[in-house]
Amino acid sequence: MRTLFDKLWDAHRVEGAAIGGHDLIAIDRLLLHERTGGVALKSLAEKGLRPLDPKRAFAVMDHIVSFREGRDRDEARSPGGGAFITETRAMATEAGLNLIDTDHPSQGIVHVIAPELAIAAPGLTLVCPDSHTCSLGALGALAWGIGSSEAEHALATGCVRVKKPKQMRIRIEGRLPPGVTAKDLALHIIANYGANGGNGCAIEYSGEAVADLDIEARLTLCNLAVEFAAFTAVIAPDEKTRAFLEGKPFAPPSNVLRQRLETDEQAVFDREILIEATTVSPQISWGTSPEETISLSGRVPTDGREKALRYMGLAPGMPIEGVPIGGAFIGSCTNGRLSDLVSAAKVLRGRKVAEGVRAVCVPGSQGVKREAERQGLDVIFKDAGFEWGAPGCAMCFYAGGETFAPGTRVVSSTNRNFEGRQGPGVRTHLTNPAVVAASAVAGRIASPSSLPVREEAA
Amino acid sequence: MAEPFRVHRGRAVVLPVNHVDTDQIIPSREMKRVSREGLGEGLFAGWRYREASGREPVPEFPLNRPEAEGATILVSGENFGCGSSREHAVWALAQYGFRVIIAESFGAIFRGNCIRNGILPLSLPGKDCTQWRNGVEISVDLEAQKLILHDQTVRQYDFDIDPYAKKLLLEGLEPIAMTLSQSESIEEFIERDKKMRPWLYSAA
């Protein structure tokens, strides 16, 4: 009796190659980006080594690229960042990798485009020197984040040496209430079990609420597994997965996509958690760790955590709703997909961003941007007063250069509320895209339902 | 190749907080070049210096206190090195001079990055090491898996480490060379796999 994770692991374990309890796992596809992948390519070249199979490796520009609409190919969003783009491009080209450059029609955040192009698919192993690679487990892939040295190892050998992690199943039974998203579910889990709750485990998400989620929402749920200290997360592929991937450029053949891949009924996990979906509410972080999260209708805790309270400029016991904000950001590998933009646009249509709030939306990929523009979402965002950016990680993390002013309180659809994550002294509140949009309109942390009824355009 | 790690004695700096993320260890703004070098100065920049762009030290930050001068061992709470996969965090710690990180637990990617760069990630679960005195002398014997705290009363602890990490660190091994010596097994896997999944090897 094996779990889905066991099956993925066993299918990629190179026989007779384990050392000191660490297996050698064959990697089907390797992803790199300019921020941490360039240094791996450089180090590999310095050792005089070549990639084992460059056609199964993909170099993507996403982290440092400018998000200015109409940006130049080498334009970075941080001083000196252009070198990451040009050097990675040169080395990826020289090594013969698939290159998805700044001006490529499929460019975007690596974890957004890997599903869009079906680079990630059920049954595949993928690694990337980026911690949010766990997102791709939503498609039934075994995908996890690694360091640059491990990426170099994967390039040279086609394998990664890794100890098989313990396994946890999180079953989410029942249905999520209206207005409660995969983002809220993930934050709810982290808030309840702690940022270390995943404890290095491979997590399988299952249950009715997970089956109900569309693929984009599943990607959001798995994306936040690393903020739960999980090794990675995985969701059994189903008919939705097949429909999502079929016909995409790097998709496996139909018959492969139709194969069953799931946990055997009697398989045993090291730990099981059961969550009742109806108990989950919209969530927002108040502190500087993703575990410092409360219900949007809740109050800032009174049990210490002075350092986080001081950084965030909040008092214990105060309601989080109504706290004035200065910034709003929608985008990232967590919530930068079409459905995220649609949910924010529903709130923004016919409304205006409050005075004094800088609001920015950056679609996760060129594909998301094209489709959003086809549906007229860009007009809704711009009419509301949002900046509309060119795809990339953008304001999810600060890398030097221009950002929100120190002390600015920002509601953000991203994944990390660490100190300084979005800029020195910037105070990040993580939440879902609709709450970001509602807060931008209200000029304070607000739920969509609390906004005054809008005047419908004639 | 990393410098082999056998025994180490040094001064410890104690950061008594949980969830120290890699954005704190090396802020992205301090990653200025496509390089593993030049990162030591940016270590803990957001906490260590008064201003984001400056280098004026915050005197009360444990690393800046006189008793921690020359520290080579870092002690912190649970989930140390969580967050971004950036190996620059480990390179920054190594370039500053750290050889041992003692934490209640570690972010998984960070721990892997440590052992590839000659830094020993060490846990003493439940021992609340963050109560140790900033600047205390510690010695570590990796072969024997023993740690000695040289405080007013000397205390000795046994620690666990997985055999692969121990071997890499003790011998300063180069993982790529180790794996390339197993090329035959890898080629066998690929040849067999090509028959089962030809589409993977011919895709677009």
TrEMBL record, chain A:
Q: Which cofactor does it need?
A: [4Fe-4S] cluster
Catalytically driven reaction(s): (2R,3S)-3-isopropylmalate = (2S)-2-isopropylmalate
Q: What class of enzyme is it?
A: lyase
Coiled coil (UniProt feature): none
The pathway to which it is assigned is:
Amino-acid biosynthesis; L-leucine biosynthesis; L-leucine from 3-methyl-2-oxobutanoate: step 2/4
Give the Aconitase/3-isopropylmalate dehydratase large subunit alpha/beta/alpha domain ranges.
6-443
Q: Name one Pfam family in it.
A: Aconitase
Oligomeric form and interacting partners: Heterodimer of LeuC and LeuD.
Q: What does this protein do?
A: Catalyzes the isomerization between 2-isopropylmalate and 3-isopropylmalate, via the formation of 2-isopropylmaleate.
- Protein name from the UniProt record: 3-isopropylmalate dehydratase
Organism per entry: Parvularcula lutaonensis
Upper classification of the source organism reads: Bacteria, Pseudomonadati, Pseudomonadota, Alphaproteobacteria, Parvularculales
UniProtKB/TrEMBL annotation, chain B:
This protein's source sits in the domain of life called Bacteria
Q: Which gene encodes it?
A: leuD
Q: A single Pfam family, by name?
A: Aconitase_C
Q: Which family does it belong to?
A: Belongs to the LeuD family. LeuD type 1 subfamily.
Q: Which GO terms describe its molecular function?
A: 3-isopropylmalate dehydratase activity
Q: Which CDD domains match?
A: IPMI_Swivel
InterPro entries hit by this protein: 3-IsopropMal_deHydase_ssu, Aconitase/3IPM_dehydase_swvl, AconitaseA/IPMdHydase_ssu_swvl, IPMI_Swivel, LeuD
Pathway the protein contributes to? Amino-acid biosynthesis; L-leucine biosynthesis; L-leucine from 3-methyl-2-oxobutanoate: step 2/4
Under Enzyme Commission nomenclature, its number is 4.2.1.33
What keywords does the record list, in alphabetical order?
Amino-acid biosynthesis, Branched-chain amino acid biosynthesis, Leucine biosynthesis, Lyase
Q: Under what name is this protein listed?
A: 3-isopropylmalate dehydratase small subunit
Q: What does this protein do?
A: Catalyzes the isomerization between 2-isopropylmalate and 3-isopropylmalate, via the formation of 2-isopropylmaleate.
What Gene3D superfamilies has UniProt attached to this entry? Aconitase, domain 4 (3.20.19.10)
